[in-house]
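To close the section, here is one more complete example, presented without commentary so you can practise reading it yourself. The ligand is fe (ii) ion.
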Amino acid sequence: MKNEIGFEMAASNIRFGPGITRELGMDLADMKVKHVMVLTDENLRTLPPVHTVLQSLEDAGIGFKLFDRVEVEPTDASFKKAIEFGQSEPFDAFVAVGGGSTMDTAKAVNLYTTYPADFFDYINAPIGKGKPVPGPLKPLFAVPTTAGTGSETTGVSIFDLIEMRAKTGIAHRYLKPTLGIIDSENTRTLPPAVAASTGLDVLSHALESYTAIPYQTRTLPERPTLRPAYQGSNPISDVWSLQALRMVAEYLTRAVEEQDDESRGMMLLAASYAGVGFGNAGCHLPHGMSYPVSGMVKSYNPDGYPVDYPIIPHGTSVILNAPAVFRFTAAACPERHLEGAAVLGVDVSNISNDDAGNVLSDRILEFMQRLNIPNGLSEVGYGSEDIPALVEGTLPQHRVTKLSPRPAGAEDLAAMFEDALNYW
Ligand SMILES: [Fe+2]
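Output:
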């Protein structure tokens, strides 16, 4: 087996600026689009971002239907509901207005209505068959209303597979939105708790992609089309990840506490920057471990998410694992962990490589405390007795866990979950 010899940078198309959502109808008209499926969730349906999008479509004379039943932390069942809606009329483009859940649902609708297949065909192996997307999809415009997932820049779509109580997804560069419309007017209504959770997702995306295994250490694929989207850290992703971290250090707290236009705009940009970074490098253990954490939720109902079912928001489930993970992974590439801490504002001039993991984790914990994130997995309902199941749920997440700079077996994962139960 030969090692990987190259990496590929799939650029993402984004447009940034306050008020640009009003241009969307003109974009679609210029593409000769006739009939659009607009996806959103029930809470956003009556709020300004959706209103602006629909007005813009009307002004441009574009026909549309609104699907407002996207679920926050979507499931295979809610994906299928949206796909059915997408099949019910001849839509020739899609517009997603919402957070990662809505954008990911729209990607799945675009895929399964363009190339109909058994639901498991495109799902990542080993849970699904992992078949590549056959070809380009229809236009999809993504209008994020949270500053977090970076889903507007990626070819990844994540959902909960109910029967396995696990998160999984579809990943292929053809899923990437045609254009991400990044408009700070669309996060004005974002509750502070959601800004905190999604903002810490950005922080973890950037740190995970920066500390992921170097791309040259993967195995060379047989054909270039088999080269995964998540390739490991590489010189181009590094630039985006580090810049995203700098922006998080400067603007995240302000975007949560003061919610001024500038800091919210910069966090939206940071989310996209991190999305370009991790969309090509990949995430690793904090995300891999987050999938069972949110998939096995018992009764947690977080502030800021008006849903009538228990959820652990994605960003929260990720950042709860992150300090434990970086303590574990630092031994593999301490310089990168120290660099991450430095970019987040720590003076590392007198810190030895042996302390890199603790120093970086302490800095993350400061953000978590300041932003009122729960103190470890115990505060969202887990105890030591749940760890075997959490480990079981992490092991199949190869797509991300194999990018960990330090390989983690079942015992390592159990030790990290134990460490993540309580932090302060
Ligand atoms: Fe994430």
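Once you have examined the tokens, check your reading against these statements. The pocket of fe (ii) ion is lined by residues 149, 201, 205, 287, 314, 318 (CB under 6 Å). The mean pLDDT is 95.
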